[in-house]
Specification:
Blueprint (H helix, E strand, L loop, with lengths): L1 H61 L6 E10 L13 E2 L2 E10 L5 E4 L3 E7 L2 E8 L2 E4 L2 E11 L3 E2 L2 H13 L3 E7 L10 E9 L10 E5 L13 H7 L2
Antiparallel strand pairs: 1-3, 2-9, 3-8, 4-7, 5-6, 5-10, 10-11, 11-12
Length: about 240
């Protein structure tokens, strides 16, 4: 009876030891988790910071070497009939041009725009013919955008005799072309630049011009000080 009691006591003691070992194992797992938790959180924070930093350079690198293309087409015109309007007896012209302005944006993450307030000026061999406003619009996302029915007109425009004769001759041959210049509004501030787009568009075909030349000039201050609009005021008016 004593031997039996001693064996039972040993079994109970053995079970008690196993239970204590299990609790220690759970404590070790909890301790390990709390030890590595700061490292896990730090790695997640680093990923959250690095992804945007690496994503934006990747976007811009995909657009490197690509530039927007501007073009202009003369969809229609009037007031330039070779036998009537350009006759030697006529001293002045009243031309009208229906223009289509187009932006081809090959970049995915950039945007090219024609600003609101841009002016289109049509000339022939440096002789001014017509002017008109261009509505603001943008091209984006590897796509082409255009605005039609951009009207430019002139009233009683004096054109030199040699220019009228040459234009009449080229119109009869179907080879006439005019210069179309799109000039963005001037902003008078430090380091401001004025975008100027120069195009060569054919008459009588309605086809788009070759890619236009784009340059950025320092704006010229108008003679009238009241017309000198600060850049800040113009930016607010465009919002």
């Amino acid at each position: 009876m004593g031997a039996h009691g001693t064996g039972a006591q040993r079994l109970l003691d053995s079970d008690g030891d196993d239970g204590g070992g299990g609790d220690c194992c759970c404590c070790d797992v909890r301790a390990l988790f709390w030890d590595i938790l700061p490292g896990i959180l730090g790695a997640l924070a680093a990923i959250a910071i690095m992804v945007p930093l690496l994503y934006w350079p990747y976007q811009w690198s995909s657009d490197n070497g690509k530039y927007p293309e501007y073009s202009v087409a003369v969809a229609g015109f009037s007031g330039l009939d070779p036998d009537r309007d350009l006759a030697p007896a006529r001293g002045a012209l009243d031309p009208t041009f229906d223009l289509t302005v187009r932006i081809k944006e090959p970049r995915r993450w950039s945007t090219a725009c024609v600003e609101r307030g841009t002016t289109a000026a049509v000339s022939y061999r440096s002789a001014p013919l017509a002017r008109g406003p261009v509505p603001g619009f943008c091209g984006r996302n590897e796509n082409a955008t255009e605005v039609r029915s951009v009207m430019a007109w002139g009233t009683a425009v004096p054109v030199p005799r040699f220019a009228r004769d040459r234009l009449a001759e080229e119109l009869r041959r179907g080879e006439a072309a005019v210069d179309v210049t799109l000039t963005a509004p001037a902003r008078y501030c430090v380091n401001c630049r004025q975008m100027v787009i120069e195009c060569k568009a054919r008459l009588g075909h309605g086809e788009a011009s070759p890619p236009c030349a784009v340059r950025y000039d320092l704006p010229t201050l108008p003679d009238d000080p009241t017309q000198r609009t600060p850049a800040r005021r113009m930016l607010r008016s465009q919002q």
